[in-house]
Design goal:
- It contains twelve helices and two strands, in the order H-H-H-H-H-H-H-H-H-H-H-E-H-E.
- It has 260 residues and is mostly helical.
- It has a two-stranded antiparallel sheet with strand order 1-2.
- Helix 7 packs across helix 11 (196-205).
Length: 260
């Protein structure tokens, strides 16, 4: 056993937690390379208010986001993943989630889900979902920005896009970026209280088949909450099945599998 291992009274080792965390970071970095540019285009370059849903009719054929036009299976795989593993996409695969988690390590405040009023903050997710539905179905998700290509596709192109985009698009982009940066103040504020995709997954998480969960042996010591980036406990609000809590329980009361 490695020198830094500590074994709990339940017989579990903190080395297992370290290894799982290492593998999760590796997976996140891999998917950052795969989906990172796609997410970047969705936030900074997509000419529509609601990104990723008009790729088939968009005339900007060089956009990275048009992968959704050719890979319809993505929109099938994602809900299947949620039904199987809850919000594991947020904890393991989402590039935006990875950015929020990294910023959250330097945050000034970490809000734990044990406070009753924390649940009320999830109204932000509901409002974002409703706003997206209204924009898409009522206003037809108008195209209000023409992406400007430059030799520096990342910085100058974004500056020009913001400078010449309609105020609706600029407001949407600044709002999203502001909430992501706000993770430096409140840990994972975007993923926990704002992200509309996370909000939909949060609803479906409750019916997921495989999950990290607590058994009746739990004595509410909250060791799991202390290591959780989302400030929650297994199978509770905002749990992303990240697995960080699997081997920290001194009662060995946290497991992964099917729990109906």
């Amino acid at each position: 056993m490695c020198n830094q291992c500590q074994t709990t009274s339940g017989g579990t080792s903190n080395c297992n937690t370290t290894k799982l965390s290492m593998w999760r970071r590796i997976v996140q970095i891999i998917f950052l390379a795969i989906l990172g540019k796609w997410m970047y285009y969705g936030v900074f370059r997509c000419p529509y208010i609601v990104p990723f849903v008009n790729c088939e009719s968009c005339s900007i054929i060089t956009c990275w986001g048009r992968i959704t036009t050719y890979f319809y299976g993505w929109w099938i795989a994602l809900p299947i993943l949620v039904i199987l593993f809850g919000r594991a996409f947020c904890g393991w695969l989402c590039p935006s989630g990875w950015v929020n988690q990294m910023l959250g390590k330097f945050s000034m405040v970490k809000l734990n889900s044990d406070k009753p009023w924390i649940r009320g903050l999830q109204i932000g997710m509901v409002l974002m979902i409703l706003a997206g539905l209204v924009v898409y179905f009522v206003y037809g998700n108008p195209r209000i920005m023409i992406p400007i290509r430059t030799s520096d596709e990342y910085f100058n192109a974004v500056i020009l896009s913001v400078s010449f985009g309609e105020w609706y698009w600029v407001t949407r982009t600044i709002t999203v970026v502001s909430f992501i940066v706000a993770s430096l103040i409140i840990a994972n504020v975007w993923c926990r209280f704002v992200c509309p995709a996370g909000g939909i997954m949060e609803l479906l998480r409750k019916i997921s088949i495989f999950k990290v969960y607590k058994t009746d042996d739990c004595d509410d010591c909250n060791a799991c909450r202390r290591v959780c980036e989302m400030g929650t406990r297994p199978n509770e609000m905002n749990c992303t099945n990240c697995g960080a809590c699997l081997h920290v329980c001194h009662k060995d009361a946290i497991h992964f599998g099917m729990k109906w």
